[in-house]
Each structure stands twice: as C-alpha cells, then as structure tokens.
Amino acid sequence: MATTKDYGLGEHTFPRGWFMIADAAKVGSDKPLPIRFFGQDFALYRGQHSGKLVMLDAHCPHMGTHMARNSTSYVAQDGPIEGDSLRCPYHAWRFGADGKCNEIPYSPGPIPPAAKVRSYPVVESLGAVFFWHDPEGGEPDYRVPFINEWNDPAWVAGAYDDLGLVNSHPQEVIDNITDVAHFGPVHGSRTQFFENEFRGHVAVQRMGGGHRTLIAEGGPMLITEAVYHGPGVLITRMSGLYDSYIIIAHTPVDDGSTYVWHSLMVRTSDGKPATDADRAAARQYQDVALAAFAQDFEVWKYKKPCIQGLFVQGDGAFRLQRNWYKQFYNPRAKKQELLQTVEGVHVPRGMQPAPDTMRAESAAQLRRMMQAA
Ligand code: FES
Ligand SMILES: [Fe+2]
C-alpha cells in the first residue's frame, strides 16, 4: 500500500474537495451509519422528523465508545436517534446535531462544556451524501458535483453499486483519466480520437471509438466525455446506444486505500417520463457499464502502486495529470502555481484530437462549472 507521501503529491495526506461519503438511500433515522474516511470515523444519520443529515465524530468523549457500531446495547436496540440527536450506546449520553451533549440521564450535575463531538456539514446531491473535506478548514471553492438532467423525468437515475474498499491510493484511480492505451486491451475499444483537458479543479477526457463491453462489434461509435468535478467524482457523458451519464465516486479511507461507488443515469429512448420498463432497461444498461468498470477495478485491486511509471510515447498525459491532482494536496495558495504548467488541451502522440464541435460544447460546460466555483 503506497501513501500520499510515496507519490509525492504534497503537504496534506488527504485531498481538498467534495467527496461522496454515503449512498443517501442507506442513511436513515433508525440507526446511525458507521463510516470511515480521511483516516477518521464518523456516525452519519438523519433526524427523526426533520430528515436532516447529521454527521458527528463517531467516538463519544465520555469513554470513547463508537456510537455507530453497536447493535446489542438496549440504547441501540430501542433506537439511538431521538429527533436530531444521537444517544451513545454505552451510558446513554445524548448529542445534538451540533455535536453538543444535551443530556446525561443519570448525572445530577451540569453538563461539562467538553462533553461534545465535532459535527460536520454534509449535503445531498445525485442521490449521494457529499462532504467538503479541506485540511485548511476553508469553504468550498467549487460547486458540489451535479448533473443538470438530475430532476428531468425523462432520465432514470440508478442506485449506487457499492464496489467497496480497494487497497490502492486514489492516484491509481485518477490515472485512468489519462490512460489512452488501456482502452484497447481492457475494454476492446478502437480509439479514434482522444484528448485530455485540465482547467482549474476540472479534468476532462474526450474519447471516441468502439467498445466491446459497452457496444457490440459493428455498433455505433461510442463517444464519451469524462469530467472530474474535483478530485473525487467522475461524471462521464456517453452517447452511443443511449444518452447516459456514468457516475464514479471515490473517496480516501486511510492513506493508501479508497472506497468506490458506481452509478448510471440514462435517458428514456422516447424522451418521455420513465416507465417501469424504462427503469428495467436502465438497470440492464447500468449492469453493462458496471461490467466495463469492473474491468478497470480488477486491475487496480491487484496491481502494485505506480509511483514513477515507465511511461513511453503514446501513453497519455500522466505526468501533467498527476501535477493537476497535486492542487488538492497542497495549500490553496499554491494552486495557481501548480496549474500553470498543466492547464490546456493535451492530445497523446499518434492520436486524433476531439472534433471541434465536441470541444465547443465541452467549453460551454466547463465555463458553467468554473462560474459555479
Ligand atoms: S462512553 Fe458514551 S456515554 Fe459513556
Ligand atoms: Fe477503463
């Protein structure tokens, strides 16, 4: 397992950015969800009547109990969430959404001010719970990942496929955005054009070609535009058989391990509001996309870390991409300096660039993403 330091990414162990931390459908008000990201444990739940998302440090300040990893205590069995508060399973101290202890059932004395845990703001978008992680404690400098068609009834949003924990540093996942040479061997594509563009917090891959997993031999050309909305969320627009978006979210768990989710949104074939048949077809298409992603995932699962890489001509802009990724591991003050050498469009040797029309559409989207920052 290689760490952030091994890759020489920067001063911070974990990157700044918006990160998916849970499938929103899995967060309820019956019990807190235990989650671990950025080397820390949290308890995530919804307020009982408010539905409000609350994320607290998992460990109780009284005696260190993990408040979301208990099923046998009567507090846990009877329902530890009361309104927006969470009760610890060990001695039943109760903490509000602000993290402050608001009841110690057996103690006649005042509640000590130190009886509190940290509470973290989280937001819901794309059916997921997102957390803004910033080692410097700053406010978000770009908008939470989004898809304009999210509320469009002619689009079907799939559930999240939980790929789970992989003992690879997120750098290995990010590398995929520049990896032009894997498309043929892994996905059976005959790549006809390929380019990357880096702008601010956004990295783009524009690609056109065949794809044996997603489209059968002799089918239409698959055109994809994969966009990193910051360091943790990749949204890929695909046109081929159907208009769709693939969402791949990955979040650091410990230094050198990553949690990964996959989902897909697809437009109904007639552009009318989705029916049950559309939803079934969408799930089938998501399974095909998942099979394509599993082809990448299997490699990551067993590979050795690529610290340097023996890159050759035609390999894609790996070094520039890794420099782009460094902006998230360094103080914001260094961001412009890091971006100076990487911003722009990069076409690998021997490849065709994306058609002008595609690049123009993409430019409009990029402008919107930058404005929202
Ligand atoms: S350890 Fe949490 S109430 Fe005692
Ligand atoms: Fe791939």
UniProtKB/TrEMBL annotation:
Its cofactor is Fe cation. This is 3-ketosteroid 9alpha-monooxygenase subunit A. Transmembrane segments: none annotated. Gene3D superfamilies: Naphthalene 1,2-dioxygenase Alpha Subunit, Chain A, domain 1, Rieske [2Fe-2S] iron-sulphur domain. PROSITE patterns: RIESKE. Residues 18-131 form the Rieske domain. GO terms for molecular function: 2 iron, 2 sulfur cluster binding; metal ion binding; monooxygenase activity. The keyword Oxidoreductase applies.
